[in-house]
Input
Amino acid sequence: MTTSDYKAIAPTLPKEPGVYRFIDAEGSILYIGKAKQLKKRIASYFGDKKHMPHKTRTMVKNAQRIAYTIVETETDALLLECTLIKKHQPRYNVMLKDGKSYSYICIKKERFPRVFITRRVIKDGSTYFGPYTSRQRTKDLLELIKTLFPLRTCTYQLSAANIEKKKFKVCLEYHIKNCLAPCVAYESEEEYNKKIQQIKNILGGRFAAVKRHFKEEMQLLAADLEFEKAQVLKEKLRAFEDYQSKSTVVSTTIEEVDVFSIASNEKDAFVNYIKVINGAVINSYTQELTKNLNEEDKDILTYSVAHLREKFNSTASEIILPFEIPLSDKSLRVTVPKIGDKKKLLELSQKNVRYFLLQKQQKAINNIKKQNSTERILSTLQQDLHMKHMPIHIECFDNSNLGGDFPVASCVVFKNAKPAKKDYRHFNIKTVQGPDDFASMR
Output
């Protein structure tokens, strides 16, 4: 891909975060990368190449086009990049050999629930929060939670019968105040579950309820003249907002689903397709269609859903759409979401498809501007030279010699006001003796 190819698409590149893909002439993905700002990151590949690694220069040279997917946050871009790299394994990407997935914080479904970090999502009714891209950040968050809310870490079966029979004894965690010993009924199930609810509020991003809780705690500490502890609690409360709640591109509540959206104008239509498997976006594709009979969006989307599902061999039993459409496959479940994770996926698809339509319109405007500029130049030249026709094809000749010997000539060609370098010619003249430009021209 040349710098001129890049300059042609540069005005239409988005400034949002996302994932970009360099694709060769055969349609193979050469490289997948993430960006906080797609426009700025892609531009970096076409700047000063003196300090650019040879491998990167070769990759850019072999690329035929650049595709991209817009997401909401830089974290979403990182997650989607990781998923796509594992799926496509591009030649120029560093291969992920450890096969590890993302970290989650699990609230176990059990009496007096434990809270811990895991990489496995097990469908046993437990509640999972994440994914978190940084393992250390997840540890810090869990440590913060356990500092604020002492929880048990043991694996005992804390049934009412076992506690009543006094099967357990307090351990070191109780003595160092990391746990309030629900195993011996020092803490009631009701009080323990109140802490779990506050933890869910923190991890789910519902800070208002948490803030109310801690403000009450801080007031109590202040009333007891525990000002230092109140200040520590205040600082930790501020830290909550630095943590992510949930990601749009990876979900623990969605299994396999296809997401479709459409954007159109009088002439063109774009349909975006997002494929979700095991809760992760593994593919995003936008199809362009040309309207012939002023078809409605409903008709275009009906056709595109069937076509794209067949093209990508989809087996999803549910599809997410912006509105209801008639489908021949009655086994498909159609969802038009209003809230929740599915709504977020639909909004992500709509954001991408709207940008493709905007990009097409911007390209058309740029082409008109270029065309107008070319016509203006040629029209001015026609008027200045008093020509009958616009000079869309121009040939320029020049002669030269070295002290009357070795005469040569050259020809340069312009088509539509642009150099046509393939038509340039150089002539060694053998039939003329001496410095005779007129004879050389003949």
